[in-house]
Amino acid sequence: MRPYPVVLSIAGSDCSGGAGIQADIKTISALGGYAASVITAITVQNTLGVQRVEAVSPETVYDQIEAVMSDLQPDAIKIGMVNDVATIRMIAACLQKHQPRFVVYDPVMVSTSGHLLMTTEAIQEIKEVLFPLTTLITPNLNEVAVLCARSVTSPEEMLHAAQELATLYQTSILVKGGHLPGEDMCDVLYSADDKSAIYKGKKIESRNLHGTGCTLSSAIATQLAKGNSSNEAIREAKRYIEQAIAAGRDLNIGQGNGPLWHFPDSMHKSE
């Protein structure tokens, strides 16, 4: 048994380094894992926003996954940006073939400004072929509203939505409540075995929050790969992301929504 987990991230590339594959690699590494990556799309973006997205061909995505799975045999997989029906099917085929123990899916469906990043056909495809193959899905409030076809605006509604999706797709659902108004944080888990948990905390004020969803999901995948239970993995991942947000509050990287500091134990030094 190797002393470190191998975690595969299947996601888009962020050339500014704050989100996507780049955030995943930093997170997995910071938590003591070995990160492998499969790029599904190349994004042209920075702290001010996304300018363009160029998808990688479904065949190339499939071949990347096969290369990693057949040789490295990852302990866990994190899936992020995937918005093409053919690519979704390729990923599902790989998951069915290799049967990884842990699959954490962060459904990147809605932009920060509220625009859909996936077609209705792609959304239907992930629900039908990808969701049932996952261990945990981590939608935010905008994404869970799309999945449930209704707005979700309170912890009670978050729990009902999580239970509905978990029952429908036989997987665990962590609804992230970072967009709720107020100073308090509230994330809600409903697991595949009909258990629920609420994770509360205080929001950390920062203008640098780019890549928080990517970071949380890859942190959970890494903690699961280490052998933690779902509840322990989520708690440890949330503890890590709080540290990364706090450490990144004073970063001056870019002109807009900057990144977290993914290595809080090796703090950057201010001049």
UniProtKB/TrEMBL annotation:
Domain of life: Bacteria
Membrane-spanning parts: none
Gene Ontology CC terms: cytosol
Residue span(s) of domain Pyridoxamine kinase/Phosphomethylpyrimidine kinase: 14-260
Pfam families per the UniProt record, alphabetical: Phos_pyr_kin
UniProt pathway annotation: Cofactor biosynthesis; thiamine diphosphate biosynthesis
BP-aspect Gene Ontology terms: thiamine biosynthetic process
Protein EC: 2.7.1.49
The keyword tRNA-binding appears for this protein: no
Gene3D superfamilies linked: 3.40.1190.20
GO molecular function: ATP binding; hydroxymethylpyrimidine kinase activity; phosphomethylpyrimidine kinase activity
Alphabetic keyword roster: ATP-binding, Kinase, Nucleotide-binding, Transferase
Protein name: hydroxymethylpyrimidine kinase
Organism from which the protein derives: Bacteroides reticulotermitis
